[in-house]
Specification:
By secondary structure, this protein is of the alpha+beta class. It is about 40% helix and about 20% strand. A hairpin with a 4-residue loop joins strand 1 and strand 2.
Length: about 600
């Protein structure tokens, strides 16, 4: 599909989005790959003749804080962007099939006179601090600057008001869509007070919204509006659920145990395997059957369990978590099914409700189910079959309505074959099985997750770390992360305790990660002189050895790229100016 065909298909007018006739306009697919492009990129960005089609946009230009906005389907216009010291204005219009983002148009125009205002720069920094909000792509979200001009908006918000996101950008919020004169964002900026959980009419439908004034260093820079519920009747349903919980006289226990904090939008990653898994998860979530989550330690099984509950019809019911490996065997039955007064020595006088009772009309998450004993498995099976529980010391049973999501980091099939797990319980739990891939099998997501973790720790530590130096990033990419995302989080947090500059250095990473990267297998040499070099390693200074290795890598990258400098820089994970600097160092120009 040519760029002209893509433009005609989506009714996008690039000319109306930039005053520059030589702006670069590219059409990206859902994986941020350049599908079509005009011819302005080579002159505008000073690129060589390397074909752009088929390359990821992140491999061509560094979008910085704007990159997550493309992934989450936000629409923006004229955002300032600096690339290798040159200033540009960047715009993006997402495209959709139904409610699924399929890519979008990216335009880039030169900003030689630095026309972007200080206010836009402040909003650019604000985007960085609003990560948790911007990740929720399915929620309607809008941001205006201090003058009321719409700066950022996503298509779910535009859908709610009956228009297109690209038609709202750049307009005053009171003139951007039908009945927009009723918007209270200007009032929120005037008063400086947020309005949370307010009923509001959008496009003839009553919704529930929150509005927040946005400040930086005590200075007002804009406002944000967020749709909490697309139908006010959802609030009534939620209220009924809460009232039912109160009538069961367990409100204290519910508030302590049933909170779920994540949904499918919190599962970071845009790799093919993860996108397919999230699509399957949402389909499974709304069907209501028991689910078995299989995956290595640290892959985020609990996050997936939260997402299943959040995407189900039980999302207004309780979400109860149980770690089967953390509960002693002699306490497991009372924890799961509860007990009455006098059931055993040391029992509470008033008794205790079990986790299954607390999860009534909701979801119970049984983590590390493989650690449950055979005798306890039999009791659990009965509860799942009969849908009723009998507290310890009680002669009567009571019905329960609970969905079970179980998780394991070992093969339950093997435990069944070894006689360590009941086959009938396995079949009862394994109605639907979701296999969560380890981090090493979705390496494309490593950059996005690492960037998200850096943003989180910047907030926690009060720092402003911009990323990782090239050598540090090389170590991260070469490490297998047997502990998966949990281990990656620990590695980045460890680095935050040592980092001194704006970038995480190689030496800021934990020693065991550095040691592992030093033992990576080396590919067969393409240069006969390398064998002589390897034999003489012990006789030469370390700096000389490292220079020789770097020179060999440069030669190999240029050989593999056929002399194309931009492609060679991409293979090495460095910028083009960085490549030229290294070539000059070794007189390889």
């Amino acid at each position: 599909m040519t760029l002209q065909e893509a433009i005609a298909r989506t009714r996008f007018d690039p000319g109306s989005w930039t005053q520059e006739s030589d702006a670069w306009v590219a059409f990206l697919d859902r994986e941020q790959t350049i599908v079509s492009s005009n011819n302005s990129a080579l002159n505008l960005l000073h690129l060589d003749e390397t074909p752009l089609l088929g390359r990821k946009i992140g491999d061509v230009i560094n979008l910085g804080q704007l990159a997550p906005l493309l992934v989450t389907g936000f629409c923006f216009r004229g955002e300032p962007l600096t690339i290798e010291g040159h200033k540009f204005l960047c715009s993006y219009v997402p495209t959709f099939e139904g409610k699924a983002a399929t890519g979008g148009f990216l335009s880039l125009a030169a900003d030689p006179e630095n026309l972007s205002s200080d206010n836009r720069e402040e909003l650019q920094n604000l985007v960085k601090s609003l990560g948790p909000f911007l990740d929720i792509a399915s929620d309607g979200l809008i941001i205006v600057d201090r003058h009321g001009i719409i700066t950022l908006v996503n298509q779910p918000f535009a859908d709610a008001v009956g228009t297109r996101a690209q038609d709202m950008i750049g307009k005053h919020v009171l003139k951007a869509y039908p009945n927009s004169k009723l918007s209270r964002l200007p009032i929120v900026m005037e008063t400086g007070r947020p309005e949370i959980g307010e009923a509001h009419t959008l496009n003839g439908r009553e919704v529930v919204v929150s509005r927040y004034p946005l400040f930086k260093d005590s200075k007002l820079i804009g406002a944000m509006g967020k749709i909490l519920f697309r139908d006010v009747r959802e609030v009534t349903l939620l209220a009924n659920k809460l009232q039912a919980a109160a009538l069961r006289d367990k409100s204290a226990a519910v508030s302590k145990n049933c909170d779920f904090h994540y949904d499918v939008n919190n599962i970071l990653g845009q790799s093919k395997v993860l996108r397919e898994l999230k699509t399957t998860l949402m389909r499974v979530a709304e069907r209501g059957s028991n689910v078995l989550l299989a995956g290595e330690s640290g892959t985020g099984k609990e996050l997936f369990a939260h997402a299943i509950h959040a995407g189900s019809k039980r999302r207004y019911g309780p979400f109860i978590k149980v770690n089967c490996a953390a509960i002693p065997e002699h306490l497991m039955e009372s924890e799961l099914f509860g007990y009455v007064e006098g059931a055993f020595t040391g029992a509470r006088k008033e008794g205790q409700q079990g986790k299954f009772t607390l999860a009534h009309q909701g979801t119970i998450f049984l983590d590390e189910i493989s650690d449950m004993s055979i005798s306890m498995q039999a009791k659990l099976l009965r509860v799942l079959q009969e849908k009723e529980v009998t507290p310890l010391g009680c002669a009567t049973t009571h019905k329960i309505d609970v969905r079970v999501v179980a998780a394991t980091n070992v093969s339950l099939e093997k435990l069944v074959r070894d006689g360590k797990f009941r086959k009938d319980l396995y079949y009862r739990l394994n109605i639907v099985s979701l296999s969560i891939p380890p981090l090493r099998d979705r390496a494309e997501d490593l950059l996005l997750i690492t960037k998200h973790l850096i943003d989180l720790f910047n907030i926690e530590f009060g720092l402003d770390i911009q990323g990782l130096e090239t050598e540090a990033w090389d170590v991260i990419r070469s490490y297998d992360f047997p502990g998966n995302i949990r281990e990656l989080r620990n590695v980045i947090e460890s680095a935050f305790n040592l980092v001194m500059g704006p970038l995480i250095r190689r030496d800021d990473l934990p020693g065991y990660v550095l040691q592992a990267s030093c033992h990576l297998p080396v590919s067969a040499s393409q240069n006969p002189a390398e064998s002589d070099f390897s034999a003489s390693i012990g006789k030469r200074p370390l700096t000389k050895i490292m220079d020789e290795i770097e020179k060999n890598l440069l030669e190999e990258a240029i050989r593999q790229s056929g002399g194309n400098k931009l492609q060679a820089a991409a293979l090495l994970g460095i910028s083009r100016p960085g490549l030229y600097k290294k070539l000059a160092k070794y007189q390889m120009q």
